[in-house]
Amino acid sequence: MSTLAAVLFDMDGTLVDTEVLWWRTTEEIAGGLGHRLTGADAPEVVGRAVEDTAAHLVRVSGGGDPAEVAAALTEHFFRAVEAGAPMRPGAQRLLTALEAEGVPFALVSASPRVVVDSVVGGSLAHVPFAFTLSADDTARTKPHPDPYRAAAGRLGIAPGACVAVEDSPDGAASAEAAGCAVLVVPSLLAVPASPPRTFAESLEDVTVARLRRCLTAAG
Predict the structure, then answer these.
(1) In whole angstroms, how far apart are CA 143 and each of 34, 173, 208, 209?
(2) Is the bond preceding residue 147 a cis peptide, omega within 30 degrees?
(3) Hey, is 198 helix, strand or coil?
(4) What is the C-alpha to C-alpha distance for residues 46 and 43, in angstroms, rounded to an integer?
(5) Model-level pTM?
(6) Could you tell me which residues come within 8 angstroms of residue 47 by beta carbon, excluding any fewer than 6 positions away?
(7) Residues near 21 by Cβ (< 8 Å), separated by ≥ 6?
(8) What are the phi and psi torsion angles at 8 (to 5°)?
(9) DSSP label of 88
(10) Which of 153, 161, 91 is nearest to 126 (CA)?
(11) DSSP state for residue 22 in the 8-state scheme
């Protein structure tokens, strides 16, 4: 059986149900710019860094300053998260099982540090993460491999000994590019299949043994 050295969890849409909050936030800011958000915008919104979403909104609306739009997105999303971000079904059970088996786990998010700290200080306050990484902690965030490479480096292990748990195309691409095995539990967007990726409908279907099998499947 493959040795599972660590599990690296995405946050939004994976451990906590915040993707809907992010969509509503983006919808509100887009409306202020004169753009009605639709499903066609989803690939540029879901799982993307704040700066990427801001650049997209400025591009499609034809107005606004990217830095100001990014700041507005962050502020509005932070307020929404502060009001409450419930855990996804099965998340608590899986985290408890990993802790019981002594498998370390960390949080690797494309959200700004202020949002990560809000969630980790709220609905995830009881979770013993080894550490948390935000979009502010690496030169590039998802879909680039930097966050997952940095997380594996902080743990002192090879990315190939880690399983990343993700819900979005950009997050899965980031983990795969870093060399991690990837378990995809989709939320708002479909995620393409590839050899290093295995899929589950819900975290309720995921066990520690299944995470170990992800390493074997990734080869």
Answers:
(1) 28, 6, 26, 27
(2) no
(3) strand
(4) 6
(5) 0.85
(6) 12, 13, 110, 142, 167, 168, 169, 170, 171, 189
(7) 77, 80, 81, 85
(8) -115, 115
(9) P
(10) 91
(11) H
Tens-level pLDDT at each residue, the chain (219 residues): 468 999 999 999 999 988 888 899 999 999 999 999 998 998 888 878 899 999 999 999 998 899 999 999 999 988 888 887 889 999 999 999 999 999 999 999 999 998 899 999 988 999 999 999 999 999 999 999 999 999 999 999 999 999 999 999 999 999 999 999 999 998 888 899 998 899 999 999 999 999 999 998 886
**Greatest extent of the chain over all pairs of C-alpha atoms, in Å:** 55
* Packed helices 66-82 and 50-61: angle between N→C axes, nearest 10 degrees: 120
Q: Which of 153, 140, 213 is nearest to 179 (CA)?
A: 153
Residue for token digits 């590019």?
Answer: 177
| Strands, E assignment, 48-186 | 105-108, 132-133, 162-166, 181-184
Q: What Rg do the C-alpha atoms of the chain give, in angstroms?
A: 17
- Give the helix/strand (H/E) hosting 81: helix 66-82
The pair of three-digit structure tokens given for residue 141, joined into one six-digit string:
């965030």
CB atoms within 10 A of CB 204: 13
Length in residues, the chain: 219
* Angstrom distance (rounded) from CA 136 to CA 158: 22
3 state DSSP class of 100? helix
**E strands, 111-206, in order:** 132-133, 162-166, 181-184, 197-199
